[in-house]
Amino acid sequence: MELYLGSLPSLEVLSLPFNKFHGDITNNLSKIATSPFSNLQILHLSNNNFCGKLPFMYIKQFRSMMDIDMSTIGSPRYLENKFCNYMYSIKMIVKGKQLDYTKIITSMSTFDMSNNHFEGEIPNSIGMLRALRNLNLSHNLLTGNIPPSIGNLSFLDGLDLSSNRLIEEIPQELVILTFLEVFNVSYNQLERPIPHGNNFDTFSSNSYEGNLELCGAPLLECKNNTIVQSLNNDNVEEKTELSMWEVVVIGFGSGTIVGLAWGYYILSVGKPFWLFKLLNKME
Length: 283
Description:
Shape: globular
Number of strands: 17
Distance between the termini: 108 Å
Structural class: alpha/beta
Strand content: 15-25%
C-alpha cells in the first residue's frame, strides 16, 4: 500500500475511515515519495488505530490545502476523474454531522484524523493549510497547547479538538475565524477565561464542557483569584493572602502606635497618679 500511494502524486482525495489500519503513520509515510500528496485536498483517516505523532513534515507538502481556489466563486467546479469521466463522492463527518457528498467542490479541503491514537503536540505547521474548511483531530491522545497558528485558517468553518489532553488557554487568535460555525474543545485540560468576540459569542457550553479550569461565558463566571492565577500562577499567594510574618508585623506596628498614643495622652493631661500608686505598691 505504501508504494502504491507513493506512485500517485496527483492524488486529490484519500478517504479510508472505519478500517483497521494501525501503526505509526509517520514511519509509513517516510518510505514513500519525498514530496507526497502535493495535490491532496481531502485527507480522511478517522476511526482507525493509527498511532505516533501527527505527520508534521508531510503537512508542509500538502500544497493544495495551502492554496485557496478563488476561481470557483460564482461558478463552482467539482473534483473528477478526467480519464473515466467520474465525479468523486465521499461520506464525512462535518460540523458534527455525517454528510454524504455526491460531488466534491474543488474549493473543499478537509483534514480529519479523529478517533485514532495520535499523541504529542499539534504541529504549528497546521496553520499553513490556509484552504482548510474542516479540521478534526478529536478523540486522540494529543497533548500541549492549541497552536495560535490555527488562527491563520481564515476559511475554517469546523474545528473539533475534543477529547484529547490539551492544556493552557484557548488562543485569542481563534476569535478572528469569522466563518467558524462549529467549535469543540470539550474534555481536555484547558484553563483560564474563554475568549470572546465574533463567533465565539455564539458557541454553547457544550463546546467547552469537561474542562474544569475554564471559566467565563457560557460557563461559570471567572472569579478574581482565577483571573489572577491566569496572569501569574507563581505570585497568586502573594496577591490573594498575607503570610504569617506579615500578620505579626502589622499587629506589632498597630500595637506600638496605640501604646504611644495613650502614653502621650496621659502625660499631656497631668501626672499619671495611678502609675505612681502602682509603683508604691510594688515597692
